[in-house]
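Here is the promised in-class demo. Please do not try to memorize the tokens; focus on the logic of going from shape to residues.
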């Protein structure tokens, strides 16, 4: 197992964000405004408000840390995400920035750790970034996301 940890560490650049599952994105954003003194303009929402989606996201930054609010909208994602032990409140996952997501997934795969959870088909491209969640059955129940931002995106606040 030491080889897996050493090799994955070689691809980790730092923390990308901390994600929270929320039953209502609007309520969670209002609470973040109240708690952190944010304004609506401090959030980046995907997809844009009013656009239908199975899951909606809002990103905001406090100091050097980025947060992700995740509102599952479809019945499938509500069951999967709100049904987790952290569903509805508390930290859901930690996302790591990696330099080469394909190489990181290959390193993990050689040691029995595979993509899964909400990305069972593997790496997903969202705008200019790539992301993948790891299968909880192969991570000891830890919810881990890996994200690769485009080479020119030195600022992790770029989400698309």
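The designed amino acids, position by position:
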């Amino acid at each position: 197992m030491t080889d897996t940890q050493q090799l994955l560490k070689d691809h980790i650049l730092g923390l990308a964000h901390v994600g929270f599952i929320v039953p209502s994105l609007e309520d969670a954003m209002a609470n973040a405004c109240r708690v952190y003194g944010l304004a609506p303009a401090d959030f980046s929402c995907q997809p844009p408000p009013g656009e239908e989606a199975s899951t909606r996201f809002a990103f905001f930054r406090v100091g050097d840390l980025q947060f992700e609010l995740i509102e599952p909208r479809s019945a499938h994602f509500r069951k999967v995400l709100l049904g987790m032990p952290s569903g509805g409140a508390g930290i859901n996952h930690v996302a790591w920035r990696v330099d080469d997501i394909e190489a990181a997934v290959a390193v993990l795969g050689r040691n029995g750790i595979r993509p899964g959870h909400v990305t069972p088909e593997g790496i997903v491209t969202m705008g200019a970034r790539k992301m993948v969640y790891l299968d909880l059955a192969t991570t000891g129940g830890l919810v881990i996301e890996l994200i690769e931002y485009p080479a020119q995106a030195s600022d992790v606040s770029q989400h698309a």
